[in-house]
């Protein structure tokens, strides 16, 4: 893993460097619709009006970066909130069959960002005119890189090497499935995603669990949990079947991403696609909730459809104010996080588990960690709630400043 630095001659926004940036942030938003590897002549490239194609400059999709940045901020709040019993319900995950809370939207929105970026990444690759086998290697490399980076994070947390399927690992596996599905025509992708999500839901709802009636779906007795506990946990592969519904969400997002990269669609038509897609997913999720309630641990279809639909509606609003109306100054705070999302996830976790919670300093009560010393100091001066919030926002603000330096210098993570 290394960090690379780019100094584009006259770029108004940071350039993408490396496959992680391609996946999480999107690649070349102004390029063509989905290129077909079997028929290169059929791939239409999206280009802004320029005098010379060779001098064409990339134009970023600001709304997607802003949406990704907002998701990162929500993630940092949920991961670093320090209020104990005073924590608002919105920033904790809902209990089993207890609906949805704001914290439950974070992971699906990351998946949505990845899926939206796939058409942009493919278009960027196709423009280079490389052979199709290079694309296969690139997809495999991206997936493996995310899985490997996730293992590094998990090893740092557990203080030993362990292979588990955490956040980045699941994103990598879902991306692998969704990226290869992208080779199919749009209608077939829609059918494949629907079969994946619907089949997964039917398995949860109707496949029998030993010792329980058919159709049992409880926290301690459901088909996916049974498979995980019986066959997969011993190999640290419990949760691998979650790649099926999460990949389906990415495929749906890729279909919307096609519209965002289609040169024949103006801003209004692109917004209509996002709006209609978001509403359809919301309605489908609400309907599916009666059969399989929203549940993040098992990634029920209702959970993914509602959170994905809400994300598309939010993205549509951001698109209106940034890419359509060109009000691009106000989302700068979001863009700093959104342009380096993987780094914004990895660095705070590693810093906390390897430095702030390990390094100690003297106090009247003995040696305590830097993290505990800062929190205690803020709580003693501001009170339990205000001090806890101050700790969270100071931590987030410090990382924003660090990532802003990278943003200004156009330095991004490359795996």
Tell me what you see in this structure:
It is a single chain. The chain has helices at residues 19-25, 62-80, 106-127, 132-158, 167-181, 186-206, 223-232, 243-260, 267-288, 301-324, 332-338, 341-356, 370-382, 384-408; strands at residues 2-5, 360-363, 366-369, 411-414. It has 415 residues and is mainly α. It has one domain (2-414). The strands form 2 sheets. Strands 1-4 form a two-stranded antiparallel sheet. Strand 2 and strand 3 (366-369) form a beta hairpin. Helix 2 (62-80) crosses helix 11, helix 3 crosses helix 8 (243-260) and helix 4 packs antiparallel against helix 5.
Keywords:
single chain; mainly alpha; two-stranded antiparallel sheet; 4% strand; globular
Shape assignment? globular
Instruction: Kindly state the number of beta strands.
Output: 4
Strands ordered across the widest β-sheet: 1-4
Our Rg estimate from Cα atoms comes to 22 Å
Count every helix, treating DSSP H or I runs of 4 or more residues as helices: 14
Number of domains: 1
Short account of what is shown:
By secondary structure, this protein is mainly alpha-helical. It has 14 helices and four strands.
Write the layout of secondary structure elements.
Blueprint: E1 2-5, H1 19-25, H2 62-80, H3 106-127, H4 132-158, H5 167-181, H6 186-206, H7 223-232, H8 243-260, H9 267-288, H10 301-324, H11 332-338, H12 341-356, E2 360-363, E3 366-369, H13 370-382, H14 384-408, E4 411-414
Antiparallel strand pairs: 1-4, 2-3
């Amino acid at each position: 893993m290394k960090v690379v630095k780019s100094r584009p001659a006259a770029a108004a926004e940071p350039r993408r460097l490396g496959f992680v940036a391609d996946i999480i942030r999107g690649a070349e938003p102004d390029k063509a619709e989905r290129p077909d590897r079997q028929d290169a002549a059929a791939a239409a490239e999206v280009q802004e009006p320029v005098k010379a194609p060779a001098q064409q400059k990339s134009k970023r999709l600001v709304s997607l970066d802003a949406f990704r940045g907002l998701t990162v901020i929500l993630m940092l709040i949920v991961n670093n909130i320090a209020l104990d019993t005073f924590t608002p319900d919105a920033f904790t995950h809902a209990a089993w069959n207890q609906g949805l809370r704001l914290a439950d939207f974070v992971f699906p929105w990351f998946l949505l960002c990845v899926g939206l970026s796939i058409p942009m990444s493919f278009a960027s690759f196709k423009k280079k005119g490389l052979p199709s086998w290079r694309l296969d290697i690139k997809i495999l490399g991206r997936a493996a890189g995310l899985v490997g980076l996730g293992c590094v994070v998990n090893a740092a947390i557990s203080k030993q090497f362990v292979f588990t399927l955490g956040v980045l690992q699941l994103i990598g596996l879902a991306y692998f499935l969704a990226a290869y599905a992208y080779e199919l025509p749009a209608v077939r992708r829609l059918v494949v995603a629907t079969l994946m999500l619907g089949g997964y839901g039917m398995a949860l709802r109707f496949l029998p669990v030993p010792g329980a009636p058919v159709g049992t779906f409880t926290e301690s007795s459901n088909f996916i949990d049974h498979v995980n506990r019986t066959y997969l946990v011993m190999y640290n592969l419990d949760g691998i079947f979650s790649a099926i519904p999460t990949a389906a969400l990415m495929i749906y997002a890729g279909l919307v991403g096609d519209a965002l990269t289609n040169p024949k669609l103006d801003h209004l038509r692109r917004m209509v696609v996002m709006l209609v897609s978001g509403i359809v997913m919301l309605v489908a999720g609400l309907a599916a909730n009666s059969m399989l309630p929203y549940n993040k641990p098992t990634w029920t279809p209702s959970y993914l459809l509602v959170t994905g639909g809400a994300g598309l509606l939010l993205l549509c609003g951001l698109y209106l104010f940034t890419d359509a109306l060109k009000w691009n100054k106000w989302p700068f705070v979001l863009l700093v996080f959104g342009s380096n999302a993987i780094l914004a996830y990895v660095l705070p976790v590693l810093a906390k588990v390897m430095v702030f919670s390990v390094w100690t300093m003297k106090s009247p009560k003995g040696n305590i960690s830097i993290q505990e010393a800062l929190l205690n100091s803020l709580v003693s001066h501001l009170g339990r709630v205000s001090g806890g919030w101050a700790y969270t926002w100071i931590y987030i603000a410090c990382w924003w400043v660090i990532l802003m330096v990278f943003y200004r210098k156009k330095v991004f993570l490359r795996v």
